Amino acid sequence: MTAYIPAARLRRAAIVGALCAGLAVTGTACGGGSVEDPDKGTNGMGKLAAEKIEEQAKTAAGKASSVHLAGTLVSGGKSFTLDMRLKADGGSGEVKSQDDTTFQLLRVGEQLYLKAGTAFWGTSDSAGKLGDKYVKVPEGDPSYKQFRGFTDMQVLLDGLLGLQGKLTKGSYTTVGHTRAVPLSADAGKGGKLSVSLEGTPYPLLMERAGGAGRVELSEWGKPFPLDPPAKDQTVDYGSQLPTTKDGKSTGGTGSSAGTGSGSGPGGGTGATGGGRSTGNGTDVVTGSPSGSPSATPPASPSPSKSPGQVQDPSQG
User: Fold this and answer.
1) d(Cα 94, Cα 88) in Å, to the nearest integer?
2) Which of helix, strand or coil describes residue 302?
3) What is the DSSP track for 71-99?
4) If you ran DSSP here, which 8-state letter would residue 243 be given?
5) What crossing angle do the helices spanning 50-63 and 153-160 adopt, rounded to 10°?
6) What is the Cα–Cα distance from 237 to 240, expressed in whole angstroms?
7) How does pLDDT run across 40-83, given as a tens digit for each residue?
């Protein structure tokens, strides 16, 4: 004789079984099972103190041969999209402002090239000839070191990887397909940094203090080609970039967008309200090391403004 099992009991059993299966995925004991070690298969970074994780991440970044940076930076109240591939001897990529002004940069060794549409060059007599060409930026031009900062791996990493305030660890997360441990400074007010739990503890995601941008860091150590542009795509304008018709140079410098009071030993300023210094004189608001090539995006071009004008934190 077949025993009769009420439908309600069957439904309860099915619900409990599904719940246990779901909990098992997260390592929670169900029906006498053991809790899975959350650090199993990781590089062990999650077991360290938050300060040690940050130190290890910066060390890994400093030893890397290359990186891909992609995301947004906010400077002077304006948002810029950055997509750059960088290595020790140069870099290439694109910068776009919130008004859709776009330019590309390529640096091979110390030779720097700037490529942009005709509108970028404003009202200069040569705008038509320079548009959509790789224009050599002479080292003697006032804009050289500012534009070069975009292609300098160490400058950008030093400017980005700065947390301010007391560090805490969060629950494990993922960045892309990679498991990571998130760090928060001053409950997130001083920035957030996610560090890889797989392989080398590279920084994977930086959310800057004060909502000053969000940048993903990927393809650490991945080789990429870095060659000069073809000769027929290159324009050598001479010892200085052209001036606009109103007489303003394309390579002028502006004022710093950074503010605050927390000085580092290198002379840079920290975020408003002080806090933990980045230790290298880096302005963690603009992401630009003081006394170094600026990592701050240039101002958007217009007929009355120098197309290549760059905000230089050392002038602030």
Assistant:
1) 18
2) strand
3) EEEEETTEEEEEEEEEETTEEEEEEEETT
4) B
5) 170
6) 7
7) 999 999 999 999 999 999 999 999 999 999 999 887 788 989 99
Size of the chain, expressed as the number of residues it contains: 316
101 in Cβ contact with 299 (< 8 Å): no
> What tens digit of pLDDT does each residue of 176-213 get?
999 999 999 999 999 999 999 999 999 999 999 988 99
Q: Which residues pair with 136 in a beta bridge?
A: 113
Burial 4-22 (b: 16+ CB within 10 A, else e): eeeeeeeeeeeeeeeeeee
Dig out the tokens for 283 from the structure.
């302005």
Locate 155 and state its tokens: 């400058």
The Cα–Cα gap between 135 and 69 comes to 23
Q: From the CB of residue 227, how many other CB atoms can be counted at a distance below 10 Å?
A: 9
Strand partners, 66: 87
